Fold this sequence. Notes:
Elements: H1 8-15, H2 19-55, H3 57-64, H4 69-75, E1 79-86, H5 102-110, E2 127-137, E3 141-144, H6 146-149, E4 154-158, E5 164-173, E6 178-183, E7 192-193, E8 204-209, E9 217-228, E10 239-242, E11 254-257, E12 261-269, E13 280-284, H7 285-298, E14 304-305, E15 308-312, H8 315-320, E16 329-334, H9 339-342, E17 350-354, E18 357-358, H10 364-370, E19 377-384, E20 387-394, E21 396-397, E22 403-404, E23 417-418, E24 423-427, H11 430-436, E25 442-447, H12 449-454, E26 461-465, E27 468-469, H13 473-481, E28 486-493, E29 496-503
Parallel strand pairs: 7-12
Antiparallel strand pairs: 1-2, 1-4, 2-3, 3-6, 4-5, 5-6, 5-22, 8-9, 8-11, 9-10, 10-13, 11-12, 12-13, 14-21, 15-16, 16-17, 17-18, 17-19, 19-20, 23-24, 24-25, 25-26, 26-27, 26-28, 28-29
Amino acid sequence: MKPDCSSAPFLQSIRSIPPLVLAMAILGVLTTSCARTGGDAVAADAVAAQAEQSQSAPASTSRALPDFTGLVKQYGGAVVNVTVVGRRTSASAGPETSPDDPLSEFFRRFGIPGPPETPDGPGAAPLRGLGSGFIVSPDGYVITNAHVVSEAAEVTVKLPDRREYPAKVVGADLRSDIALLKVDANNLPTVKLGKAEHLTPGEWVAAIGSPFGFENSVTVGVVSATARALGPQSSVVPFIQTDVAVNPGNSGGPLFNLRGEVIGVNSQIYSATGGYQGISFAIPIDVAMDVQRQLRETGRVTRGRIGVTIQDVNAQLAQSFRLDRPRGALISSVEPGGPAAQAGLKPGDVILSVNDETIETSTELPALVANIKPGTQAQMRIWRNGHEEKTQVKVAELEDDTAVPTSMSQGRERGQKNERLGIGVRPLTPQEREQLGTEGTLVVEQVQGPALAAGVQPGDVLIAIGNSPVRSVEDVRKATEKARGSVALLIERENARIYVPVRIG
């Protein structure tokens, strides 16, 4: 209740107070009032400041977005364009030449007519392609993709400052899709190397390359996932998945993190059109550097294998095998006489760890085993019959059937091509036959001319020619030596067998 300042008792009480005391009392009231007013003002200022900060939040957020200009300025000079000239492998350089040919994709997407058809032979126009790469040492070593240079007769490396050098292919490894080039130069700019193992989904990354021939293009995005497996041939590579725009011509270029470190080599896209659709894949730099080291030192890449076919463990399988949760790599088959068989592993075992490295998903196992030196004992924890056991497996060497010789101009399948059919074949390894579940022994690796026109594809397993089974390159030669007109190739593709008629004249 507020005091009634007009009441007589109140006035009398004031008169009875000594003047000094009254003055002090009045001063105290004023001070309290000012303090309260000041506090209210401070609170109001704080609210206003908070509101202002809230209103300015979008601007603050935009300022927090990553800036890649410094990265490009400092390390962009070490990113190169790789131009390839090779012998024509089909009747046309149009879109049907090869899905990996960036120029063919360029012609198709932009409606530009491809080069005129030219018959194969000495007078055929050379096949040209392009990709990207990056310099890893000042004395001229360059990393790119193996598929960029696998058919190359000539390779040229062009720097952003327009210097150009002829490049020698030191070696290439198709399993990892990594190739090492060497140019005769010194004091070249180099990239800074990082560690892919520290990558986290959601982290910002940038790619520099030559999509569709547009040199030194920069694209950015985030890491979508890590340790992706993209099939049996690439199972030794735990790919980095990103949403960075990568197109034909970006192949072999670097993937940078925000610290300016190369953490991957752009290699593949997942697309129904041949162009970027939001998913791209890069080889971890750790894998790439290990491959280039081996290529530089020995000219080949050595990997381990244990001889098993595996699959992932889902919730139902975990319950069936009495696992506490889905984890590990379930063995579905064991190669007879292989390392795993000799160690006593069998179908139904679940591999939980290798050398104290925990296996959460089956995709982690192939890359882990591949990095083990052949001849060494791998310590494993497995799940069998409802409980955990320990075992050892002596790792064998994975056959290097996909290595590309140093001399690219000689052609990787010289002596194994059948020019009349237009195919290049090689024997399947026992592991590949087991993985494919096929009785065939030959796989098609190169297709041109008549076979290309007939629809034969790389990766097809060749079973027979006409009624004659073929189990060797010599069988293929004999079956087609005297053939005229058309021959029927029995091929196996995606667990189905079909005959493909090929006109050979």
